[in-house]
Design goal:
CATH architecture of the largest domain: Alpha-Beta Complex
CATH topology of the largest domain: Spore Coat Polysaccharide Biosynthesis Protein SpsA, Chain A
Helix content: 40-55%
Number of helices: 13
Strand content: 15-25%
Number of strands: 9
Largest sheet: 9 strands, mixed
CATH class of the largest domain: Alpha Beta
CATH superfamily of the largest domain: Spore Coat Polysaccharide Biosynthesis Protein SpsA, Chain A
Structural class: alpha/beta
Distance between the termini: 45 Å
């Protein structure tokens, strides 16, 4: 049975950390180690992690000194990966709850399909209550990355050699987005199990909430890099149309609406029905932001062009 090293960066996750750790220790895939990397917490996270390590030999701890100005978990994740012993590495957050079958499902998915890594779906709770869906196929993930991450990172399981060959960029705030676009460019094959494998806690203390402007900066920078690789020769005006969709900028000009529609149809042209449905949903959002009436024929343009 393959050893999986679960790397859990932690920063002030004391209220939720016990439950998160326990959700890993009760996984149906029993061959695992859990590496809890405290990234300079000011609450009782270190004590919680130490108690877990004292109670279960599968738990290991690393305690890092606080790093002023740190805006991501990249440093802590890299430290955990450096000491991981497994042939596979899973990411986990200290405020989420893994469902018991998560690692078993993801490992089988990777091995059956010959992938380098995968994630899964997640059910949000806390400040949100909704399903976090991500594409199943690698091609779908590459296209979804033009808008957001293609894998919810606390669901990630990947081959250890991939994680070691491509460490997280510690200067990036949205390090999971930067990493996913970079490993795709390097030829890694990714996917997502189409089952809920995680309960994803949402709250105001999350990094993307506290550092929203920095995350937006990274999305813009690495989206451009990713788009130019996927669609070389894209003209500036074409990219601006894509960026407007991704950043949910209201589009009212008829010509710009047609440009947005062209992008969505182009991105939906893969063998994954759910991705096409996601692009159709985005078209509906574009029409809503444009203030189009329910009966406006422009709203039907996506379905008509897609032949639905």
């Amino acid at each position: 049975m393959s050893l999986i090293s679960v790397v859990m960066p932690v920063l002030d996750a004391g209220p939720w950390l016990r439950e998160s750790i326990e959700s890993i220790l009760v996984q149906t895939h029993r061959s695992l180690e859990l590496i809890v990397v405290d990234d300079g917490s000011s609450d009782d996270s270190r004590e919680v992690a130490a108690a877990a390590a004292a109670g279960d030999e599968r738990v290991r701890t690393l305690f890092l000194d606080p790093l002023p100005g740190n805006t991501s978990s990249a440093r802590a994740a890299n430290a955990g990966i450096a000491v991981a012993q497994g042939g596979y590495i899973a990411r986990m957050d200290g405020d989420d709850i893994a469902l018991p079958h998560r690692l078993e499902l993801e490992l089988a998915f990777i091995e059956e399909r010959g992938l380098d890594g995968c994630g899964g779906l997640a059910q949000a709770f806390g400040s949100e209550d909704r399903l976090y869906w991500y594409p199943e196929s690698h091609d779908g993930i590459e296209r979804e990355l033009l808008f957001r991450v293609g894998i919810l990172h606390p669901t990630l399981l990947a081959r250890a050699e991939l994680m070691r060959a491509h460490p997280y960029l510690e200067k990036a705030s949205h390090e999971d987005y930067e990493w996913q676009t970079r490993v795709c460019a390097a030829g890694a094959r990714l996917g997502n199990v189409q089952e809920v494998v995680l309960r994803h806690r949402t709250h105001l203390g999350q990094a993307h909430v506290r550092h929203v402007e920095l995350f937006l900066r990274d999305l813009r920078q690495y989206r451009f890099r990713h788009a130019m690789r996927l669609f070389p020769g894209t003209r500036p005006a074409e990219f601006q149309a894509l960026a407007a969709i991704a950043e949910k900028v209201p589009i009212t000009d008829p010509g710009e609406l047609e440009a947005a529609l062209a992008w969505l149809l182009r991105l939906a042209d893969v063998e994954e029905k759910a991705l096409a449905e996601a692009m159709a949903y985005r078209w509906g959002q574009i029409c809503d932001r444009a203030g189009l009436a329910a009966e406006d024929p422009v709203r039907r343009r996506y379905a008509e062009a897609a032949g639905a």
